[in-house]
Design a protein that fits this description.
The chain is of the alpha/beta class. It contains 15 helices and eight strands. Helix content is about 45%, strand content about 10%. Bound molecules: fe (ii) ion.
Length: about 400
């Protein structure tokens, strides 16, 4: 007999530290974790912006030994993950610290758990691509400092690994991959150029919108044991609050953050919006926008946020009739006066507002401008349809034909 689930759970990083100058408290956080040595993981861009140098200088006089791995790349391949794991096993630090965007934080999380485990990265990726081994334990304490406001990786237990030879992205998801501490300091995002500010910001908006309209936790069957409950368990009263706050913050600040990176109030709202969106989607789940973006990004080796921006308006338009009351709330969080409108009309206003925002931050030119061909629509739809953990929560049922239509509409 079918029995709906009646319980929800909520997980995030063990501890969050938020605010301007929060990064100044990093050495104290390392020392509190009995850290006499740290390995800092980062990428070229963060190093070039001087952020790393500034953070390392804060350890002067503390006696903490600092090593650096600066070879993280965007949409990191399994080779990058392997190189970081080799490094951490060679250095053997007490604490790992990731400073960067979602790619760096993903590498940091996996590096921290594999530092004290054996085997290589692919052993811990789900079968059939990987070996399907469970992550055995918590590994080294891990601290993450995001330098973009977008992925929400600082609050989720997932790392995304590119397999460029196979045009695939795979993941490792484990409760042991939650950071011990996320330090979200909006000042670290000030030097991020307008392009990545826009793509990461629209990614964060899509996390908030998809988490808010995804199916509720009781729209799935009760699991046999609590351990069988999926990571993406459906929306809950708690994720709803976090997601709506995120829509409001991001909708109200993304244009300013793109137009003037020095606008600290806008950067603060984006950082808070991105973090709360991560907390929401990490528990509630996502939807068809992410299924499409994951499949298309892997195939064409495109940045995640760019594919999200291309697909989000069409997916919202498709979903609006399936969750009109939810999209009405999204419209209101975006500052639209919905008085006198029925739910369907209010939902349409949310779609229009997001479409305009995507255009205003320079991301309105669609998948074709990223090199996606119309003749690939069918194959991309088939690949997206296989990402069931993403499509299962979509508020309107999506089959492979619907996904193909959405690819064409996003061109
Ligand atoms: Fe995303």
């Amino acid at each position: 007999m079918y029995e709906p689930d009646s319980v929800w759970e909520f997980d995030t990083a063990d501890r969050l530290k938020f605010g301007t100058e929060a990064a100044a408290e990093l050495p104290e956080a390392v020392i509190n974790r009995d850290g006499e040595s740290v390995l800092m993981l980062t990428d070229e861009g963060v190093e070039a912006a001087g952020i790393l140098e500034h953070l390392i200088a804060r350890f002067d006089g503390t006696g903490v030994d600092v090593s650096v791995f600066a070879d993280v790349e965007p949409d990191p391949s399994v080779d990058v993950f392997e190189a970081a794991v080799d490094r951490v096993r060679a250095v053997d630090p007490d604490v790992v610290v990731g400073v960067g965007g979602g790619s760096t934080l993903d590498v940091t999380k996996t590096t921290s758990v594999l530092a004290t485990a054996d085997g290589d990265v692919l052993d811990y990726v789900a079968e059939p691509t990987g070996g399907g081994r469970p992550v055995p334990g918590p590994g080294l304490p891990a601290i993450g400092l995001p330098t973009t406001a977008g992925t929400g990786s600082e609050t989720t237990p997932v790392s995304v690994i590119s397999l460029p030879d196979r045009d695939m992205k795979v993941g490792i998801s484990s409760r042991h991959q939650y950071l011990d501490l996320a330090v979200v300091d909006p000042e670290l995002t000030v030097s991020l150029p307008p392009g990545p500010t826009a793509t990461s910001g629209i990614d964060a908006l899509s996390h908030a919108v998809e988490a808010y309209v995804t199916r509720q936790y009781d729209a799935k069957e009760r699991p046999t044991t609590a351990a069988d409950r999926p990571d993406y368990g459906g929306r809950t009263p708690l994720t709803d609050q976090l997601a709506l706050t995120a829509v409001e913050r991001i909708g109200g600040s993304l244009r300013q953050a793109v137009d003037n990176g020095q606008d600290l109030a806008a950067r603060r709202d984006m950082a808070l919006g991105s973090m709360t969106a991560g907390m929401a989607f990490g528990n509630a789940g996502l939807g068809a926008t992410h299924a499409l973006a994951m499949a298309i990004g892997a195939e064409y080796h495109l940045p995640h946020g760019a594919t999200i921006a291309a697909c989000l308006p069409a997916v919202m338009r498709y979903n609006a009739p399936g969750a009109a009351d939810r999209f009405r709330d999204v419209a209101e969080a975006l500052g639209i006066d919905t008085a006198g409108l029925d739910d369907r009309s209010a939902a349409d206003r949310a779609v229009e507002a997001v479409t305009t925002l995507v255009e205003d931050v320079g991301l309105g030119s669609g998948l074709a401008s990223l090199g996606v061909e119309r003749s690939d629509a069918e194959r991309l739809a088939e690949k997206s349809a296989r990402l069931e953990r993403l499509t299962v929560g979509n508020p309107r049922r999506v089959d492979v034909d619907d996904l193909e239509t959405l690819v064409r509409e996003s061109l």
